[in-house]
Amino acid sequence: MEIRTVGIDLGKSVFHLVGLDQRGNIVAKKHFSRTQLLAYTANLPPCLFGMEACCGAHFLGALLVKQGHQVRLIPAQFVKPFVKSNKNDYLDAEAIAEAVQRPTMRFVPIKSIAQLDLQALHRVRDRLISRRTGVINQVRALLLERGTIFRKGRRYLCRQMPLILEDAEQNLSSQMRRLLEQLWQEWKNLEEQIQRLSDEIESIARQDDACQRLLAVPGVGPLVATALLASIGDGTAFRKGREFAAWLGLVPRQFSTGGKTKLLGISKRGNPYLRRLFIHGARSVAMHLNRNEHALGSWMNQLESRAHHNVFVVALANKLARIAWAVLAKENIYRPLPEMQGSSV
After folding, report:
1. Range 5-99: architecture per CATH
2. CB neighbours (10 Å) of residue 128?
3. CA dist., res. 318 & res. 300, Å (int)
4. Is the pTM of this model over 0.90?
């Protein structure tokens, strides 16, 4: 029987494959190394391949597309309902093969090399920021045990640490002083690395036309614009801005039954890093936007007067995300109008 649909369960070095015919019957069950898998798929007629959208899926998917196959990546949570009884690699591959055929299934576009590179920059920068925060907190905790207190934040660390290390009257032993000097040097090295990555991201944003359009949207800076491109590319995987906002997790969770609608807190699905950037951007807009001269001003004033501040910020992030999607996917230029006209994008 001819294989029409293939599900692949990905691993680091071993890949399990299940092939289905036109009627959905299993006609192939195999496991390969990466080299053996590519050699096997190269000899298959054009098929529909399904894989979970996980580490390595984008690279392998691009190779399969070059071989002439159709490749669709599925979020892992959408594959789980198709797994029968107990879990093993072949059952996972079979579930993927069945899920990929569903006409209403949601798929993840394959990322380009440029998108993966940009995503890597953001991930490394985010990890370094976490390390820097850890160093700051450890320095503050060590000094607190010795009666020295200074406020949270990088600025206060920069201002106080040189004075503390040079002050001979501080209640610090020579061993503790050496340890604090090491932490101080570690913090400065992390700061330099983060700044280099930030400069590189800003350089990419200056050279990309889509990023330049996105930078006109309130609350969207080089970090948000490049992270958005790395995550969704041209944005055409979503039909409208509401779908993108839902994917980001900026809409309420539902627990509705019996015709009764019950809305909970935001779903927090999708990309948590990108959602966090939009939330930070919305907080900045809420604080600094001149509401008398911007289209969002009257809407923001009305919502802020009747909603909790955090609810207001999330709603604003939702609106900014939908505007950013429209600018990206429709290749529009953002022009703030003096008054809100019609429904928001």
Report:
1. 2-Layer Sandwich (3.30)
2. 18
3. 12
4. no
